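1st attempt posting a full record on here, be nice pls
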Amino acid sequence: MSAAAQKFPCPGCGSPLEVRAAGRTQSVACGYCGAVADAQDPAHKLLSKYASAVRYEPLIPLGTRGVLRGEKWECIGYMRRAVRYYGVDYEWGEYLLHNPLKGFRWLVEADGHWTFYETLTEGPQGAPK
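the predicted structure (as tokens):
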């Protein structure tokens, strides 16, 4: 579904990495060693190493294709996020979905609840600029 996926070895451990939206992806992280590689650099230079020992397995594996709201999507990215609010930690997972005709969308999971997001290119009418 994505235009020309690009594969290369991880600069940290040699495991296979795949850029599923070549030309539009800035970096890619290795699920084995946590290395972050520059997806724009032909040599795929190592940008950083993930320091945390915490590992999260996405509920939707990268590369999974499916239909959501009548449209075909491919899961091409995942990140784990968290915020502390009044001493309470809140965590959630964000999945980057891609459809070559529809573009990118976010599917967010928090405590078993799912939200589908579309990025707007302009603010709502009447919104202050």
